[in-house]
From TrEMBL, chain A:
Alphabetized PANTHER family for the sequence: PEPTIDOGLYCAN D,D-TRANSPEPTIDASE, PEPTIDOGLYCAN D,D-TRANSPEPTIDASE MRDA
Gene source species: Jeongeupia naejangsanensis
Topology of this chain in the membrane: Single-pass membrane protein
Entry annotation: catalytic residues: 330
Location in or out of the cell: Cell inner membrane; Cell membrane; Membrane
Known role: Catalyzes cross-linking of the peptidoglycan cell wall.
GO MF, one annotated term: serine-type D-Ala-D-Ala carboxypeptidase activity
Domain Penicillin-binding protein transpeptidase: 271-609
Lineage: Bacteria, Pseudomonadati, Pseudomonadota, Betaproteobacteria, Neisseriales
Family: Belongs to the transpeptidase family. MrdA subfamily.
Domain Penicillin-binding protein dimerisation: 63-239
Main location: membrane
Reaction catalysis annotation: Preferential cleavage: (Ac)2-L-Lys-D-Ala-|-D-Ala. Also transpeptidation of peptidyl-alanyl moieties that are N-acyl substituents of D-alanine
Name of this protein: Peptidoglycan D,D-transpeptidase MrdA
Amino acid sequence: MARNELKNSLAERYAFQLRIVTAVLFVLALFGLLFARFVWLQVAQHDKYQTLAEANRISLVPVTPARGIIRDRNGVVLAHNFSAYTLEITPSKLADSLDETIARLSKIVDVTGKDRRRFKKLMEETRDFESLPIRTRLSDEEVARFAANSYQFPGVEIKARLFRQYPFQEVASHLIGYIGRINDKDLAKLDEDGELANYRGTDHIGKLGIEASYETQLHGTTGFEEVEIDSGGRAIRTLRRTPPQPGKDLTLSVDIKLQEMVEKLFGERRGSLVAIDPRDGGVLAFVSKPGFDPNLFVDGIDPDSWKALNESPDKPLLNRGLRGEYPPGSTFKPFMAIAALEGNFPLTRQTISDPGYFIYGNNRFRDSHKGGYGSMNFDRSLPLSSDTYYYQLAVQMGIDYIAKFMATLDLGQLTGIDLPGERPGVLPSPEWKKKRFRTPAQQKWYSGETVSIGIGQGYNSYTPLQMAHGIATIANRGVMFRPHVVATVIDKSSGKQTRIEPQPERTLPWKPENIERVVRGMVGVTQYGTATRIFAGAPYVAAGKTGTAQVFSLRGGKYNAKAINERLRDHSWFVAFAPADKPTIALAVIVENGGFGAAAAAPIARQVLDYYLLGKMPAALAADASAVASAPVAAQEDISD
Amino acid sequence: MIKTIWNRIKQPIDPWLFLFTLLIFAVSAIVLFSASNRDLDKVMDKVTFMGISLGVMWFFANISQQTLMRLALPAYVVGVALLVAVALFGVTSHGATRWLNIGITRIQPSELMRIAMPLMLAWFFHHFETTLNWKHFVAAALLMVVPVGLILKQPDLGTSLLIASSGFYVLFLAGLSWRFLAVMGVAGGALAYTVTHWELCINILQEYQCRRIATMLDPMQDPLGAGYHIIQGTIAIGSGGVLGKGWLNGTQTHLDFIPERTTDFIFAVFGEEFGLLGNGVLLVLYLLVIGRGLTIASRAPTLFGRLLAGAIALNFFTYAFVNMGMVSGILPVVGVPLPLISYGGTSMVSILATFGLLMSVGRDRKLMKG
């Protein structure tokens, strides 16, 4: 037995030794292969590589293309480049510590504490061997002073660079976006797209807005210079040059004068306005307030400014038009109205009694018009914004029909606008609830929930862009265009202009007489309804709808705007298009915590239509922007919404 | 007194392995000084790391084999758990999710797996030594696939292949059937044929991965992108000739033509300045380390010791071969440092930790003899 074991163990030992010998042969074979490769490179091909190494006195230097310029529809420049000197540090090449270098530098050029903090933040985001700006926009005098002392500063250089500038600063900041330094995430993305080589020599990339969504067109193609260098690595002369292809210029459909006017009308208030040409989907204004200065981001934002922007309760970095999801309130009613007519529901042909509330099951749904109008029918329901009528309509239509119809208007869907980061909003339906919630009790759709959907409350929540897009679809009589902000792409080198063709999304099969009936209702809003006062004296016929979105549930108590914390006040909505028969503009505007729809939002809409259709600037704007902005809430109390 | 301390220190150390390591360290310091453009700070950093990693090696050399066997399973489980944690809440940098933030610093759990994988598999085979059959090989393969798959997903193709190879070496040494090896060889050949032919490759890999392989086969296709590394590395080595251009005289190196020349591409600097002769010497130094490791393996008294030592030695070989192969243009560019020579502390510490394990295996034999 013992002998057997010994024998087994010996056999095992032998098997293992055989494996080891095989491994040794494997190692020797592969190292032999390596050595053969070395002999091939270093003996057989030595002359060839020797020549190549000497020719390697020629260095390929990338020449960055100039980034495309962004202009508004009238050719006003919104983003452009200018050339300036920067002082740059390559941390890995420094002779002494970074702090010492900066301390010595600050004796020659002005380096503020803000510059230092910004530089430190940049360093954390990039790698050591990158050259990073410590100071930008040096004066000629500073350039001369540093040049005389540059021998004391290895690893510090003056470079002439193209800078991006946004002359309108805060105006249209969310729309235009900004460029920022390329970070690791951008690099990985470029690598995946096979674009890395094209970005050699480029430090910046579009991060937000049009700058991001049109990055490919704006960037252009990097060129290369073959430069002869001496043994110290300094360039002696340029041998050959492949010029860069500059980035393409963009012309927007947006009118910056209109945009600026709206932003001034908003003043200090928060909110958004999206105006669209319903005939082709071209965006005329895309406002989100408050904004921010995109120039801050171009060379890395300093931590203090970043903190201020990021932590402000006003959320200036949020693009409200694209990503702000709000309950639409009564501005949802025109969509309900067309849905009801298209579904041919009996209620559209009936007159109902309107006591000022609607009882469903055990619940009493209040009408915002106290006491009601006595009786109500379809044609008066939009101008007077009857809640009672739409509560009943919603019940009659049922949630499945409503959800299916609204989806065809892109509500709760992405509109596909050419801006990055769009949010879809929420189009409530039993299916949506099943996906959104976990427990069966939460997932169940209660029929009472359908009632408040009818007046744009409940889970309903849409972006101002979606609302403008939906209203534009009604304005254009059911022919739907995908909204877009860029109208033309211009190739500077060939002079070729490529118009971005309007993209018809779909044509909704609505009956013309149904559309005209809804339009008549919306015209009634500005003629004898909730927005009569605001549209008094307008020489054109406007169609509109007021809306008030509840932020805060009152649980049966009486709403008193003055008694409630400002941030819990209702949002004020207005949607409109004009001229009513052949609309050239459609818009949606929301003023956060602005109270009744007719109070804050409708006056802004009126000014926009006046400007766009009549070329009239609001007179008050020149005198005092805030006077226009804050129409008193108390004066509007007689108007129901 | 001093003598006893001295004995205590040198007792677990394998003198040959220690000597070869020091020789490679010397080469490392010399090349790094040149590659970093005479940056003494960088060299001193590296020397500090050498000290630290020698300490780590000594620490591991002192652990007895019984303790190592007890640690194998926990180390493996912790390693896999950390990899899962990386997949769930890892830190992303350069487009890959490889790190875990543990408050003070970031750790890269795939480094732990380099040690845990051979340890686990060696223990596994040792544990089932008497009843070993093909099912155990299937189970071992599964133990291998889990962490390798997790690392592959990060994505980190280089490290996952290296860890897979370390597991494979254990399987091979434990007696994986020759017939199976032959089948695998044929399958590997077929795979290599597929990925090197563009029209076949795009069926099974992402387009950018195929582009990377195509670039390796013909660097001139993308001279400013990925091909740049390969072209410049090859020129550096080729222009070095038989005797090299001499220390600090490499033009490719000092004119900034070699990217990542202190880390992954340091071998290009070495090949340019020391030529074929230097390359030969370096190959011999690496061979000595590998040979010593395999010797320890073949003399080890237990199956655990044999498998662990053999896998460590062969894995070290793989690192050296893959790095030199990629710099000289016969393998695709994957991020693998030249063992013990590239600048960078983590990889050095983990390599010397495995040397400590080798010494632990070698020492137990001494004890048994005595």
